[in-house]
Design brief:
The protein is mainly alpha-helical and 282 residues long. It is 72% helix and 3% strand.
């Protein structure tokens, strides 16, 4: 299990690095990021809706289309200011929300499931579409070299926290952190994950000029993103636990589903966006 996680994790790491580097030559359209977010939108949305009870499961094409329209809206105004790009995302979200309502109205036959289907569909739009959009928006917070570092921090810091929590919890974990929502999580693993996240943030800070206060700000960023990453992990655990599933899927060996891989990053992305958006570099 550990060996498989290490091998697959290494492949995912270098694949992500390759995408970040390749997109530096393709600014401001960033097609590699667009393709990755599209794949994530398709796979993660399918995994998410398959977790929901069959009677209340969203119409697959509505959920898949909606999430990917929201994600694609990030790339329609690459030369616009940040406010205009965010407005475009809001318009896409509202348009797909209204479309989902219309579909439920058209398909309605009997009471008892339409509202829950619409609620689950909206959850997919927000969880994967809106939160995922912040990963794209990070690409327009400065020049391509700086935003590559920012994206690397947003992706690798919470994942470093995941790795640190896994190994620390496996070998040193004694005290349960969330015995109902995620029984395997321990306070020792939580502490180890934060240390790994802080170390990753400090290390990555040397690859680009993104922190005005240097190591101190990098450490603070690592601590905050480490905590937020844990909350993202717990949020997905809550969904799985409530739907009585161990993993979102079995699409990625050693990890489960894609949703199990990106859960911490989804929560980290908006925090990282506002951290750097309102810094003195913005």
């Amino acid at each position: 299990m550990i060996r498989t996680r290490f091998l697959v994790g290494t492949l995912l790491f270098w694949g992500t690095v390759g995408i970040l580097v390749a997109d530096q030559w393709l600014a401001p359209w960033f097609p590699c990021l667009f393709i990755c977010l599209t794949i994530m939108g398709m796979m993660a949305t399918w995994e998410l809706i398959r977790l929901f009870p069959a009677a209340f499961r969203p119409t697959p094409w509505v959920a898949l289309l909606g999430v990917n329209v929201i994600l694609a809206s990030n790339f329609t105004l690459p030369f616009a200011d940040s406010g205009s790009r965010l407005n475009g995302i809001v318009v896409a979200f509202l348009g797909m929300f209204l479309a989902a309502f219309l579909v439920e109205m058209y398909c309605y036959r009997e009471p008892g499931s339409a509202i829950l289907r619409l609620a689950f569909t909206t959850l997919a739009f927000v969880y994967l579409g809106l939160l995922g959009s912040f990963l794209a928006q990070l690409r327009w917070l400065g020049d391509v070299h700086r935003t590559s570092t920012i994206l690397a921090l947003t992706i690798f810091v919470p994942k470093a926290g995941d790795i640190g929590a896994f190994f620390t919890g496996t070998f040193l974990g004694r005290h349960k952190m969330t015995p109902i929502v995620s029984p395997k999580k321990t306070w020792e693993g939580f502490a180890g994950g934060l240390l790994f996240a802080i170390a990753a943030a400090i290390g990555l800070s040397y690859t680009g000029d993104v922190f005005r206060l240097g190591i101190l700000e990098a450490a603070a960023f690592g601590l905050v993103i480490g905590i937020v990453g844990v909350l993202g992990d717990l949020a997905e655990s809550l969904i799985k636990r409530d739907c009585q599933a161990k993993d979102a899927a079995q699409s990625i060996p050693g990890f489960g589903g894609l949703l199990d891989v990106v859960d911490s990053v989804l929560f980290a992305a908006p925090v990282a966006y506002f951290w750097f958006r309102f810094s003195w570099y913005a």
